[in-house]
Structures are given as structure tokens and as C-alpha cells.
Design brief:
Elements lengths: L3 H66 L2 H7 L3 H15 L3 E6 H8 L3 H7 L4 E7 L1 H7 L1 H7 L1 E2 L13 E2 L2 E12 L2 E10 L4 H12 L11 E7 L2 E5 L2 E3 L2 E2 L7 H9 L4 E7 L2 E11 L5 E10 L1 H51 L15 H93 L7 H25 L9 E3 L1 H11 L1 H5 L2 E8 L5 E3 L1 H18 L3 E13 L2 E9 L29 H11 L3 E6 L5 E8 L3 H5 L1
Parallel strand pairs: 15-17
Antiparallel strand pairs: 1-6, 2-5, 3-4, 5-6, 7-8, 7-13, 9-10, 11-12, 12-13, 14-16, 17-18, 18-20, 19-20
Protein name: histidine kinase
EC number: 2.7.13.3
Organism: Roseovarius rhodophyticola
Length: 656
């Protein structure tokens, strides 16, 4: 429970200590976001300037070549010899600031046009100017010096896409072509500027963007770069002091966004060895492919430092305000907190059982003092009433305890009587049913037995071929009589005796399989029997048959007449005693784990409307009478496993 002082402090200081910093943080965060957006807007503007300058270079290059092709000087030079014409073109190349300029006859131009769309467009139409990527071989074919200038060793760069290449020998070219149709010169005039190592081009962009008129030099530490795919082929980014970072590569994140997805990157990015507010623009060649990037950006560190300084200043000022305000507030509030804390302490002592605790006189003469005095009066009344209630409660508790004890004893007697009545009623019903079943079964059995005897007497020696079958009928009639007797024995166990004999469990199992063959054969049941030497046990053969048949039939029904039934007989030790174990396991769903401890209870069944639920209960009773044990478990691989263990038969039992 929080104190009154704490709650009042929270109530008073929450707006100042929590809400104000939260609002301040939201305001600073909004300012920081706007500040970041302004930085991004600046770099976007810078990127547009660089893009416009590149577009201007392309336009100027195209216009220069097109103007040359349509000039009178070109028409005059068209009739010159080849050597003089090439010398004329070389002079014009230097005047126009081009890296190459050459003339292609119409046939050669048509062939070249299949590779370069700008040449193909100039054959039958207006001139075209695009950015194209020349392979090392293409550059050598134009000028070997250009091929050497374009060649760059690749420098391993952190966070770049892994590559096996060591050299970048391709060239990024501003490629222009225009049609020529003067007497003697029907074809295409082709020119271009190699942008690899074109430091004038990239430094001009940097000067335009970061040192334009009205901006002090050094206000923003900016850089500009031209990428051929992800390789810096022209840049003023410094790798070391005084050395440009040519041959370094852009990060994999930027490459994916700009070259793979065609986005314009406007965000912070790590450039060689520092973070920059960066803009990357994808460059498209004449075939519509993204072949490179134009980059401008400025160092992020000065702006981060400025933001950090603003944060420190704002929150330091707020902390100073708190340091001056909170002590003053606590001093003024002390006169209220002290009496309230005394009330709280007094109430705590009363809660702990010290009913004579009182607040006493307080110095405050305001409403708090009146509340303290009134509270002491109320505590006096509470103490008096508590004493009276305690005496009444002691007497009432004594009466309740006596009455509760009587009710508990009565309930226990009623519960025991109820259980006895339920079991008596069930057993009485079973007794009546058993008597009727025994009468109804014994009559047809007697008729069958009589007719079998008549068959023997009538056929005499002619009955020998079916003697085995007749003997089997006799045996089963005896078994029916035994089963009826066992049913009566379950209903009235005191009226019957049990006669044990030494039995080979494996032999009894074989007999039982013959009797239940009809159950196994009507389904898809695979039976697997495993036998090993086992001692004889002492039990009535009919009783053991009844147990085995019940377990086998239950297993078949559990598998829904389809599965594998495994029967194992062998020697087993239990509690230091030698005996024989019979294990019956199936591949059915197993026993419900919540009911596995009740499967041997009378009337328990999972086949409602089909059985009485006495089979396993009777089996448990018969095995227990033979000093044995029957148990059940669920196998890990699925299915139920019933185990019957019987102790080894003793010679003194046989003699008895």
C-alpha cells in the first residue's frame, strides 16, 4: 500500500516529472524527425542537381555531335580523303571535349546498330544519346588508351556483395550517334565520353552541389560518385589521405534497393569508412537495363553532433528546473505530510491488533487536525465493540464446531450406507439374473448332452471317426456348465468351493486359442505366440481358461477385429518368488489413462449396451484366489498390455 505522502507527491509531481519529460521527449522526437527529413530533403535536392548535370552533359554531347553532322564544315570535309577526314574528326573531337568520335558508313552502321540501340536509332531517324556500358574489348576497338583508363583493380569492401572478380575493365560511356546524309558520306557519326576516372565530371558535380554560390565552403562535407553497377569508377570519396576510393564497392543493401529493385535511395548509408546522408539514383542504359548509380551525399557526423548537443541542452535545462522546483515543493508540503503519516502509522498498529493505539494531539489546527481527533474517538468505539464481538464469536465458534462434527459423522455414515445399498442392489440383481441364466442354459445343454450320448449308443463303433468331435462337444458342454457355475459363484461366492490343480499355462493357452478361433478368424487378426520354459502353476484349469479367453476377446474387440495380438508365456520373478507370466498385448487404442485404475472394478465397461462389465473383475478375482496378480498398462508404441502372473505350484499343494 502506498503512503499518503507518496501519493500526494505522485499527484503533484507527476505532471512535472513524468508528463513534462514525456511531452518534451515527444517534441524533441518530432523535431529530430523533421530535422532528419530536412537532411533527406537536402540530399534529394542535391541528387536532382547531379542528375540534371548528367542530363546536361548528355544533351550537350548529343547536340554537339548532331550540330557537327549538319554543319557546312562537315559537308566540306566529307569529300576529303580518308586520312584527312579522320584528322578532321580528331580535331572536332578535341573541340567538343569527346573521348572518341568516328564515322560509320551505312552498312557498318546497320551492323553496329544491332548491338548499340543509339546507332540503330540514328540510321533512319534523329540522333540519340544514352549511357552505355562498353566491355574491355569494345574500348580497345575504339581506343586502347580508353581501355587502360577504364581499367580499375577492385578493392575488397566491407558489406559489399561477395565477388570473385579482381578487375573492372568495363567502361561507362555517354554514347551518342546522329545520322549523316551528305554526298559521299551516308551513314552515322558516333561520339562519346568515358565516365570512368572522369574526375572533372565528378568534381564539377561536387562543386555544383556543395560549393554553390551563397554557401560557405565546408558547410556540408559532401561527396559525389559514379558507379558502374556497384563499383566506384569515378568519385571524390577518399579511401586514404589524398587517394580516391576508385574500385571500392557499394554495400549489398544499397545495391539491392537501387540496382535490383530500381528504387532511388534517400537515407543514411555507410560510404567506405563513414556514415553519410546519401542519395543513390539508378542509371539506365540504352537497352533499358539498370547499369549503374549516381551518388551524392554529405557526412552525417556534424549533424549528429548538432542533434546530440541540442538534446543535452534541452534536457539539462529541464533537469535544472526540476532540481530547483522539487525541494521547494517538498518543504512546503511537509506540514501536510507529517500529520497524515502519523494517522497512517496509527492505523497500521490498529490493523496489527494494537487496538489501544491513538494518534494524539497534532500541531495542525486545520481540517487535518479535526480529522485526527475524530479518528481517535472512532478508535475508542471500535475497541469497545471489538471486545463485545470477541466474546460473542468465541461462543458461536464453539457451537458451530460441535454441530459441524456431528454433521460430518452423520454424512460419513450415510455415504457408507449408500455404497453398501448400491452394491447390494447390484449383486442382488446379478444373483437373480444368474439363476435365470443358469436355468435357461442348463436345459438346452442337458438336451445336447443327452443327444450326444444317444449318438454314441446308436452308432456304437461307427462313431469312432467322429469320436474326437464328440469328445470336444462333451468338453465344451462341461465348460458351459463350469462357466454357469462360475457365474453363480460370482453372485454367491460363499456357496462354492475352488479346486486347484497343477496347470501348464502354455497348454491351457493352446486350448483357449482353439475355443476362440471363431473370434480370430472372422477378423483380420494376426496372432503371434512366444513361448519359453515356465513352471507349472496351481489354479483351476477352467478358471484359467475363463481368464485367458476374456483377455483375448477383449483385445480383439479393442482392435476392432484388425491388428496384431501377441501372446507371451514364460518364467517370471516377482517379489523374490518364481512363477509364470502370461502377457496379452494388442495394437488397439489402449486404455484411457484417466480410467486405467478402474478397469478391474465391477460393471466397468467401454462397450455400453454390449457387456456387463464383469469380465475383468471376475478375472481379477480368479487370479487373486490363486495367489496371483493381474495388471494392465499402455505400451509406448500404442495398444494395451495385460499381464497375468501366477506363482509356481508347490508339491505340498498337490499332495493336499
Amino acid at each position: 500500500m502506498t503512503s499518503v505522502r507518496l501519493r500526494l507527491l505522485i499527484l503533484a509531481l507527476l505532471p512535472l516529472v513524468v508528463l513534462m519529460p514525456l511531452l518534451l521527449w515527444l517534441a524533441v522526437s518530432r523535431w529530430a524527425a523533421n530535422y532528419d527529413n530536412l537532411l533527406i530533403a537536402n540530399v534529394e535536392s542535391d541528387l536532382r542537381i547531379a542528375e540534371q548535370y548528367l542530363a546536361q552533359i548528355m544533351t550537350t554531347t548529343g547536340d554537339g555531335v548532331e550540330g557537327l553532322a549538319s554543319s557546312t564544315t562537315f559537308k566540306d570535309a566529307a569529300g576529303l580523303s580518308r586520312a584527312k577526314f579522320e584528322a578532321f574528326l580528331e580535331n572536332k573531337r578535341a573541340e567538343l571535349g569527346l573521348d572518341f568520335l568516328y564515322y560509320l558508313p551505312r552498312g557498318a552502321a546497320q551492323h553496329a546498330g544491332t548491338k548499340w540501340p543509339v546507332i540503330g536509332a540514328a540510321i533512319n531517324g534523329p540522333g540519340a544519346t544514352e549511357i552505355d556500358i562498353f566491355s574491355g574489348g569494345d574500348l580497345v576497338a575504339v581506343d586502347e588508351d580508353l581501355a587502360l583508363r577504364a581499367r580499375l583493380p577492385l578493392i575488397e569492401t566491407e558489406a559489399a556483395v561477395p565477388t570473385d572478380r579482381n578487375i573492372e575493365d568495363r567502361g561507362m560511356v555517354v554514347h551518342t550517334a546522329t545520322g549523316v546524309s551528305v554526298p559521299g558520306r551516308i551513314g552515322v557519326l558516333v561520339g562519346g565520353i568515358l565516365l570512368n576516372r572522369n574526375l572533372d565530371f565528378i568534381d564539377t558535380i561536387n562543386a555544383l552541389v556543395y560549393h554553390s554560390e551563397g554557401t560557405e565552403s565546408g558547410d556540408r562535407q559532401g561527396t559525389a560518385t559514379l558507379f558502374l553497377e556497384d563499383v566506384r569508377v569515378s568519385t571524390n570519396v577518399r579511401l586514404f589521405e589524398g587517394e580516391r576510393a576508385l574500385g571500392t564497392r557499394v554495400s549489398a543493401v544499397v545495391r539491392h534497393a537501387v540496382l535490383d529493385e530500381g528504387q532511388t535511395w534517400l537515407n543514411r548509408a555507410f560510404v567506405v569508412n563513414d556514415w553519410y546522408i546519401s542519395g543513390y539514383l539508378p542509371l539506365i542504359d540504352s537497352m533499358g537495363h539498370r547499369v549503374g548509380m549516381l551518388y551524392v551525399g554529405y557526412l552525417e557526423a556534424p549533424f549528429i553532433a548538432a542533434k546530440r548537443g541540442a538534446y543535452v541542452l534541452i534536457f539539462a535545462a529541464f533537469a535544472a528546473v526540476l532540481a530547483l522546483t522539487i525541494p521547494l515543493f517538498l518543504r512546503l508540503a511537509g506540514g501536510i505530510f507529517s500529520p497524515l503519516e502519523r494517522m497512517t502509522q496509527t492505523m497500521k498498529r490498529v490493523e496489527d491488533g494494537q487496538l489501544d493505539a491513538r494518534i494524539g494531539a497534532v500541531s495542525a489546527k486545520d481540517e487535518i487536525g479535526e480529522v485526527a481527533a475524530h479518528l481517535d474517538e472512532l478508535l475508542d468505539q471500535v475497541q469497545e465493540r471489538d471486545q463485545a464481538l470477541r466474546s460473542w464469536a468465541d461462543e458461536l465458534n464453539t457451537r458451530v464446531e460441535d454441530r459441524t462434527k456431528e454433521l460430518r459423522e452423520t454424512n460419513e455414515k450415510l455415504e457408507a450406507t449408500y455404497q453398501q445399498l448400491v452394491m447390494s442392489e447390484k449383486l442382488a440383481s446379478i444373483g437373480e439374473i444368474t439363476a435365470g441364466v443358469a436355468h435357461e442354459i442348463n436345459n438346452p445343454v442337458a438336451v445336447i448332452q443327452g443327444n450326444v450320448d444317444v449318438i454314441r449308443e446308436t452308432l456304437a463303433d461307427a462313431a469312432d471317426p467322429v469320436a474326437t468331435e464328440l469328445a470336444l462337444i462333451d468338453q465344451q458342454i462341461s465348460r458351459i456348465n463350469a462357466i454357469v457355475g462360475k457365474l453363480l459363484q460370482f453372485a454367491r461366492p460363499g456357496d462354492y468351493g475352488v479346486f486347484a490343480e497343477q496347470v501348464d499355462v502354455a497348454c491351457v493357452l493352446d486350448d483357449c486359442l482353439v475355443l476362440v478361433d471363431y473370434v480370430l478368424s472372422k477378423g483380420d487378426i494376426k496372432v503371434e505366440i512366444e513361448r519359453s520354459d515356465a513352471p507349472l502353476v496351481s489354479i483351476n484349469t477352467g478358471e484359467l481358461q475363463q481368464v485367458i479367453i476374456n483377455l483375448v476377446v477383449n483385445a480383439v474387440q479393442a482392435m476392432d477385429n484388425k491388428g496384431k495380438l501377441t501372446l507371451t508365456v514364460g518364467k517370471s520373478m516377482r517379489d523374490g518368488r518364481i512363477g509364470t507370466a502370461l502377457v496379452v498385448s494388442d495394437t488397439g487404442p489402449g486404455v484411457d489413462t484417466g480410467r486405467i485404475n478402474t478397469v478391474f472394478d465391477p460393471f466397468y465397461t467401454t462397450k455400453l449396451g454390449e457387456g456387463t462389465g464383469l469380465g475383468l473383475s471376475v478375472s481379477q478375482t480368479l487370479i487373486a484366489q490363486a495367489d496371483g496378480l493381474i495388471s494392465v498398462r499402455n505400451k509406448a508404441e500404442g495398444g494395451a498390455e495385460f499381464s497375468v502372473w501366477l506363482p509356481e505350484a508347490q508339491d505340498d499343494q498337490e499332495a493336499a
